[in-house]
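Provenance and format

Records in this collection were gathered into a single text stream. Each protein contributes a sequence line and a token line. The two records reproduced below are adjacent in the stream.
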Amino acid sequence: MSNIKLIPICAGYYSTDAGASMGVMPRALWEKSIEVDAKHRQRIRINLLLIVTPNHKVIIDTGIGNKLPEKLKKIYAYSDYEMFHSLKDAGYSREDITDVILTHLHFDHAGGVVSVIDGKEQLTFPNATHWTQEAEWLIARNPDALNKAAYDFERDLSLLEEKGKMSLVKGDSELFDGIRVIKVGGHTEGFQIVEIDNEDIQAIWAGDIIPTQHHLIPPIISAYDISRKDSFKAKEYILKKGYTIYFSHDPELWSK
């Protein structure tokens, strides 16, 4: 029996433009399988993954969090932050988390790094080391014109920097026994996927490279990705491995 346990954690729901999500795929091809609202938005789930090992309790990504401005909550039809409840249902608290792996630093994945708790902004996981790629941290810290709208360092990450609870990774790295991050780029400049390979568990957290089951087809790449070519290469790598693939935003399936 494997000494690693994988527990899906729901952090809430929000709505995103379905056409942008499906990239170059014509609407006529996807509209029968993807339900949209009057604004052509798809309701998607914010999926996280808790990895429990004998020595670590690792969560992948943090979701949007509970400090999104009201204007943005309305724009995205945000459900509110459900991570605390989901984590409790799984038998854990935020203090139990030893490590946070951030695939990238967009608001819907890193917004939950900092939460408002008892009326004060605090690190959501106060005892955790936060792992992300150095290239991702640098672009979030000083975004260029292409990336400026994608990051809010002051709101989401400045407290993490102040507390010194981050660890920057340069390229591929085995963080813990059986848990490895691989820098693939594509969705963002420093995007990383997470491989779990331990005894009878072989899984990949593909994150926003394959956010839903509809993105399993290699050429179907979100318009939000900064490099379709790198995303395509990352998909080829993931699919070739033959591991279980966990989705970051599928509203129905956690994995396939």
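Adjacent record:
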Amino acid sequence: MPSSATQTQQQLELLSSAIDDGSLAPVARMLNALPAAETAHLLESSPPRMRQALWALIDRDSEGDILASLPEELQSSFLKDMDVDELIELTEGLESDDIADILQQLPRTVIHEVLASMDSQDRHRVERVIQYQDNTAGGLMSTEMITVRAPITLDVVLRYLRRHDQLPSNSDAIYVVGRQDTLIGVLPIAKLLISDPNSTVREVMKTDIYTLTADIEDTQVAQLFERNDWVSAPVVDKAGKLLGRITIDDVVDVIRDDFEHSINSLAGISDEEETFSSIKDTVPRRMVWLGINLITALLASASIKMFEGTIDKVVALAVLMPIVASMGGIAGSQTLTVVIRGMALGLIGKNNASWLLQREVIISFINGIVWALVVGTLASLIYNDFTLAIVLATAMILNLFVAAFVGTLLPISLERLNIDPALAGGVLLTTVTDIFGFAIFLGLASYFYG
């Protein structure tokens, strides 16, 4: 059986050939026969020209589900060409959190028109979600859920469920509410099915439940789901009123977004850039980070220029000094990655940061000694200069020490300043290890060689 990636490429090849031949009817049939998520994946995997051609072939009643499965930038590219009537039709039947995600990308006047077209119940559900930032539990939650009262029997609950055409997606529990919709318990559907129908909800429900407040960050929500193996979790306000629920499919999206953010940040790439972004959108985004990198490179070059006279006396220094900076950069990146990962998982705090710093410094010191002996020995044999070997080995040990120190404390400090450590940490770390590496190596050389 071909892998998912291979199958996608085969489908894209067939679609591309059919579009080039002008055979649009088979393409439309193929697209509209696929599940919404699969069609969305094909669109995301297509270059812009082909993407627009495929979108034009999708049935109007499928557009909403497909759009909800697309990343934000792709959603925006399709939404900007739609009028209000199309948007109203597109949002019909979508869950409240998906509608909120779409509306948040539109002008305020358009949002009001779309909301005004909904019935009061649907409008209230969407407005409940849209008032929260999209990176919080409130912005992530869906308001589609089933609630019951505690005094009724399980038989009544079962008859109530059978009146529904379908249950909300990923429904593993029914929420038990009191007056003013205060959450008082959870009735797992598995428990409902195996319990005596004559029992009351109060007798069977679970009261030792973990709730999520609407203002906690989505990354914390993802950590809690992973830690507790949840399928869904209720979201409440500060007074304990049930607002909605978060399901595992939403959490998977958060995990994917966080992963992509970390990868993009380490390379200085904007989160708004997707694989097939246009040239005009991509160039300015990357240009900013190339400019920042140029500034850091000029700072490193300035530190070298301070020792220009020493380099003229001992030409071997120019050959060997990139080794010191490179080893420091790699060691620092290893530490930085470990720390940023620990911070993302909520593992690092005031109580263990000092232990982590001590460990990283010791690790770098040991690695520094080992590789300093290797490189120093090679330098001594190649250049027949024991002093040069001592300078190189000492500089490497000191720069790896600096790398461990900065790699640990830099992301912690950036987070306290509300600066994304994944975005800024790599650039700053490279600058520090380059400057310190060159300065230590050439400074020692100046001392020993006069």
